[in-house]
Amino acid sequence: MASMTTADLELVEHMRFAAHTGSGHAFEIDTQAESGGDDAAARPVEHVLAAAGACMAMDALSILRKMRQEIAGYSVHLEAPRAEQHPRVFTSITMTHRVRGRGLAAANVARALQLSMSRYCPVHAMLHGSVPFTVRYDVTDEADGGRTTGEVRVEGEEPAGVP
């Protein structure tokens, strides 16, 4: 039987909702004052964007640890322009994974991200067909100070924006 993911939302006030997940966690969702909210919590689309970055980062981190890569720091920066007209969907998503470690191989980081995109990350899989992704990495080896940057995509696909 397939697993079930659940969430319950309850109105707190104005446009702010308390979310309670089936795994027992809680967070709030709100919107800006111009839309009737209090700007007291992240907006729904911000949750989606953060979920895409977190999902891929968690996959990559797990894979890198299995590769015995020594990770000292990991951060992800995401940018997603939105359409001018409603429903104001993301028109693209660009994420940059910044990874620091000793003796860290950039090729391993690239491979871990590629595996996340092509096999493991359900958030990427759900969004991938409707919005172009650009996934970059910036690897700093703390042993020698070397820095390597690059871009990753699902095998067999052209980079975002290429017909």
Classified by CATH, the class of the largest domain is Alpha Beta
Helix content bin: 25-40%
Number of H/I helices: 3
Overall geometry comes to globular
The strand line-up of the biggest sheet is 4-5-6-7
> From the coordinates shown, what is the CATH architecture of the largest domain?
2-Layer Sandwich
SSE topology string: EEEHEEHHEE
On the 0 to 100 scale, the average pLDDT is 93
Q: Low-confidence parts, pLDDT < 50 over ≥5 residues?
A: none
Which structural class do you get from the secondary structure elements?
alpha+beta
Question: Separation of termini?
Answer: 39 Å
The biggest beta sheet, please? Answer: 4 strands, mixed
Q: Could you walk me through the main structural features you see in this protein, from its secondary elements to its overall organization?
A:
With 163 residues, the chain is α+β, with helices and mostly antiparallel strands. It folds into two domains: 1-42; 44-152, GMP Synthetase, Chain A, domain 3. It contains three helices and seven strands; from the N terminus they run βββαββααββ. The strands form two sheets. The chain has a four-stranded mixed β-sheet, with helices on one face. The radius of gyration is 18 Å and the shape is globular. The N and C termini lie far apart (39 Å). The mean pLDDT is 93.
